[in-house]
Amino acid sequence: MANRALPGLTVEELTRELGSRTRAIETVKWLFAQWPLPERLPDALPTVSHRAWRPFIAKHGLVTPRIVERSVSEDGTTKYALELSGTSVETVRIPSKTRSTVCISSQAGCTRTCAFCATKELGFIRQLKAEEMVAQYLVARAEAPRHQSARNVVFMGMGEPFDNLDEVLRAVELLTQAPAPMLRAESVTVSTSGVLPGLRRFLAESKAALALSLNATTDEVREQVMPHNKTWPIAALLGELREDARRRRRPRDTFIEYVLFDGLNDSDEDADRLVRLLDGVPSRINLIPYNPYPGTSLKTPPEARVVRFYERVVKQGALCLVRWPRGREIAAACGQLVLAKEALGFQPL
Ligand code: SF4
């Protein structure tokens, strides 16, 4: 194990480093009770012996995210621009009636080039470490009102999680481990744009929920909006989900994300094809009317078209929800997670 910073170590790793499971558990409890996170690890922890703690802090640091900017939309959606070890990333807290969902970035920038996504404009900056992902959760969690505590996490921020899968799997483990923060695996959703090798490994190794960003019902259209579909086409991706469903006793929570673009993938035929494609894939469809960003030629369908698509899909027995954009005025909605490079000093590597 590299010399990781907290909160990047599992209880098992802390047990080895600190010489006892009790000390490891006390350290995790202490860490997840902190806000704001201190600038560095303290010289002593009341519940951990000096003899064990001193060598530990000589070896391991602490991730200390700095909030550079905080934008709040009318519905309470809050977008944070964070600085993490000199890199700028975005995190979003999305409140609902009784809880908040924290949307985490897994990479600074992205290597993929989805036509509808503002993040691609940044290019790829660097992979984020698991501790930097958990630190994003801690920042947003600390600001969630008591009646909207942050109990859900989605890896839907900047980056393709399966292009940084080791760190994402570790972050999922850290977010779900006891004694804290102990999120339910089903409350953590990892979203992919369809990177097949990563999808296979994730399905085999993780209990977390999955979201597949599908966005088309033919390879021809999907290649226009997600060029890597040439390498990993629709049938291969959905075949993998079908296999996963066959292997499991209890179906995994699986979401099919379908961004609707005006005149491109929003026809009645698309709706019918979508239902047929998902035969044998236990899942729920999330329809997302496209959120345009400056410079894109893709358009949002009229509301009536979105409703028609939804009704057609539901009539055929599919589970479906329309995700009307939230936080659009602060560019925190799906595919809009990008900041002005200059304002935040992005430095592509
Ligand atoms: S949609 Fe996701 S995978 Fe595609 S460019 Fe944007 S961040 Fe990357």
Task: Write up this protein.
The chain has 349 residues and is of the alpha/beta class. The chain folds into 2 domains: 49 residues, no CATH class; 279 residues, Alpha-Beta Barrel (TIM Barrel). Helix content is 33%, strand content 19%. A 10-stranded mixed β-sheet has the order 1-2-3-4-7-8-9-10-11-12, covered by helices on one side. Strands 5-6 form a two-stranded antiparallel sheet. A hairpin with a 5-residue loop joins strand 1 and strand 2. The radius of gyration is 21 Å and the shape is elongated. The two termini are 25 Å apart. The C terminus is likely disordered. Bound molecules: iron/sulfur cluster.
Counted by DSSP, the helix tally is 11
Q: Which ligands accompany this protein? A: iron/sulfur cluster
CATH evolutionary superfamily of the largest domain: Aldolase class I
Q: What's the average pLDDT?
A: 91
Low-confidence stretches: 339-349
CATH domain class of the largest domain = Alpha Beta
Ends: how far apart?
25 Å
- The gyration radius over C-alpha positions equals 21 Å
**Based on CA inertia axes, which overall geometry fits?**
elongated
Biggest β-sheet: strands ordered side by side in the sheet: 1-2-3-4-7-8-9-10-11-12
Question: What's a quick, concise take on this entry?
Answer:
The protein contains 11 helices and 12 strands. With 349 residues, the protein is of the alpha/beta class.
List keywords for this structure.
binds iron/sulfur cluster, two-stranded antiparallel sheet, TIM Barrel, 11 helices, 2 domains, about 350 residues, about 35% helix, about 20% strand, ten-stranded mixed β-sheet, alpha/beta
